[in-house]
Amino acid sequence: xxxxIHLDLVAVEGSRDEETDRVLALGATPVEDHRVPDGxxxxxxxxxEGNEFCIVRTPxxxxxxxx
Length: 67
Prior knowledge:
With 67 residues, this protein is an alpha+beta fold. Helix content is 24%, strand content 27%. It has 2 helices and 4 strands. It is globular, with a radius of gyration of 12 Å.
């Protein structure tokens, strides 16, 4: 059964990739990688119980690649 709620996480400190490393160390697993070479995108992760969530770029990361 899919999650009834979906969370998008944004790092309070550091970058999206640093937050990804942090949650991996806590036991999360990657589900889908939607990052693209120019820095846009997100990662779908699952916690140890299988609940999915995304890790998205911080506002600062988004501003750095805004057109």
